[in-house]
Amino acid sequence: MQEITLANKYFKARYLLFKWRYNLAFANKIAIAFGMAGVTGLVAQLKLSLPWTPVPITGQTFAVLLAGVLLGRWWGGISQAIYIVIGVAGVPWFAGWSGGYSALLGPSGGYLLGFILAALFLGHFTDKYIRARNFLPMLGLMLFANFVLIHVPGLLQLYLWFYLVKGAVPTLWNLLWMGSITFVIGDITKIVAAAALAKGITPKQAFNDEVDAESTKRR
């Protein structure tokens, strides 16, 4: 009985937290977006450089995926835009404590832009669909966000960087190996962890104008 009571308290707390987040004033949402940008900058320092690719392994993807879930529609993407704009302005919170516009123009620049797209995408589905907050739907959404919305812009930028800076054109296989295949195992590990965390912390009842609220109630 006590375990049921504790579980109910937890379910109510996460519902109230997301409802509070959704109804925050604009200034407070900006402040939280700045905070999430700082978290992204912090985990960016978990960096591992590999000899066969100019793109390092970092912890950023985990923070980016959760940004959309935690901040919701628009604001997850805004947090990543803040992260990029402030980093480009010179604050050294890109990977390896770096900053400046060179990071955006470098081999990893496309991935940074993809962060905005991924967080916007996940924020939209998290706030709009209750069913998206379960593990398997969230896992599918995060896989798409990571391997399409982040990796595709990243690969395009990496290709342009090799062509314009190195004067070389990598083969499709080499491009995929340097910019995507190398990161598959690590990315899937982060995605599974992020999806499991998202499932645990998100409410499974409506806190705004979810389109599937009525159908979810009837189940």
Concise description?
By secondary structure, this protein is an all-alpha fold.
Q: How is the topology of this model organized?
A:
Blueprint: H1 2-22, H2 26-43, H3 60-71, H4 75-88, H5 101-105, H6 109-128, H7 135-166, H8 172-179, H9 184-201, H10 213-217
Overview of this protein structure:
It is built from 10 helices and no strands. The chain has 219 residues and is mainly alpha-helical. It has a single domain, classed as Orthogonal Bundle (Arp2/3 complex 21 kDa subunit ARPC3), CATH 1.10.1760.20. Helix 3 packs parallel to helix 9 and helix 6 runs antiparallel to helix 7. The longest helix has 32 residues.
Whole-Å distance between the termini? 24 Å
| CATH architect. name | Orthogonal Bundle
Shape: globular
- Count of all domains: 1
Q: Which regions have little confidence, pLDDT < 50, spanning 5+ residues?
A: none
Give me the count of strands.
0
Helix content: 55-70%
How would you classify the helix and strand content by structural class? mainly alpha
| Percentage of residues in strands | under 5%
Individual helix count? 10
Instruction: Using the coordinates above, name the CATH class.
Output: Mainly Alpha
Largest sheet: none
What's the mean pLDDT score?
93
Order of helices and strands: HHHHHHHHHH
CATH topology: Arp2/3 complex 21 kDa subunit ARPC3
Q: Cα-atom Rg, whole angstroms?
A: 19 Å
Features:
219 residues; mainly alpha; Arp2/3 complex 21 kDa subunit ARPC3
